[in-house]
Each structure stands twice: as C-alpha cells, then as structure tokens.
Amino acid sequence: MVTGLLLPLSAMAAEQYAQVLSVVEVKEKVVTPRKVCEKVQVAPGTKSGDENKVLGTVAGAVVGGLLGNQIGGGTGKTIATIAGAAGGAYAGRKIQENQQQKSAQPKYEERCHTVEETTEKTVGYDIKYKLGDEVATVRSSKRPSGDRIPVKDGRLQID
C-alpha cells in the first residue's frame, strides 16, 4: 500500500485528485514443484511350460510316499505309502499351481518424478497518474478503485 507519497509543491496547490492515466499489473512467475507417481509394469507375467503341473504332482507323490512308508508295518505300511503318495501329489500340485499363478501376474512398480507448474501472481500495480501538469508513476499493492486518486496534504491516498 502506498500512502503518503510526497508530490512536488506545484502539484499541492488546489488539486484534490490525481487523474489515473493507466494501471498495469505487475506479475511474478511462481514455480511450484509437484510429485507425480504412476504404476508402471516392469515385468510381464510369464506362463509356465508345465500347465498340467506334472512336476509338482510327481515330486509331491514321491515325498508323500516316502513319508507314508515310514509309518506302520505290513498292509498298514502299504496303505500309508499310497495315502502319503496321494496326499503328497495333491499338495505338490497345489504348491506348483500357486507358484505359477504368482509368476503369471505382471510385476508393477511405482515410479515418481517431479513436474514444475508455473503460475503468475499479481504482486502490485504500476499506476501512471497526472496531477496538475506533472505525470508520474507509482507502484501500489492495490489497484485504484476508479479513475481518480485522492490527494491529501500533497500525498496520494491509495487505499
């Protein structure tokens, strides 16, 4: 706010108002950084060559059969071996299925970068005015409300 700008004595005579000739906004560029993030696929999903899950089924059956063979004796041992092989085959198949599903999913990663947004901010106004025979310019934080500026005791009264 400009208050009390001293004017030449010749302008202080009988004038009560200065005539506004032009008003120019004074702007300043403001650069604001902003973080932008996005998910990017970094690895495609891969299909397994063993869609029937044979490796998991066979490996599970062998391990299950070996474990079942450790139980009991005679006919019970045979039944435990068969049950162990069947259970192991099922478990091995499910384990391989889960692993294949995980590898079939594409891999994503969040990647961020900074962008700069530029805006203009009005920081003041250059006011060209005429008082008597004199023309001058003053900078004010406020735009004058009309085409005249009051003058009091030789000073512009810009509110």
Helix-strand pattern, N to C? EEHHEEEE
Number of domains: 2
Instruction: Report mean pLDDT, rounded to a whole number.
Output: 81
The shape, in one word, is rod-shaped
Q: Given the helix and strand composition, which structural class is it?
A: alpha+beta
Number of strands: 6
Beta-strand proportion: 35-45%
**Number of helical elements:** 2
From the N-terminal CA to the C-terminal CA, the straight-line distance is: 7 Å
Oligomer: single chain
Helix content: 25-40%
Computed over alpha carbons, the radius of gyration is 43 Å
Low-confidence stretches: none
Strand order of the largest sheet: 1-6-5-2-3-4
Tell me about the largest β-sheet. 6 strands, antiparallel
Question: Could you give the topology of this structure?
Answer:
Layout (H helix, E strand, L loop, with lengths): L2 E4 L10 E27 L10 H16 L5 H30 L2 E25 L2 E7 L7 E5 L2 E3 L2
Antiparallel strand pairs: 1-6, 2-3, 2-5, 3-4, 5-6
Helix pairs in contact: 1-2
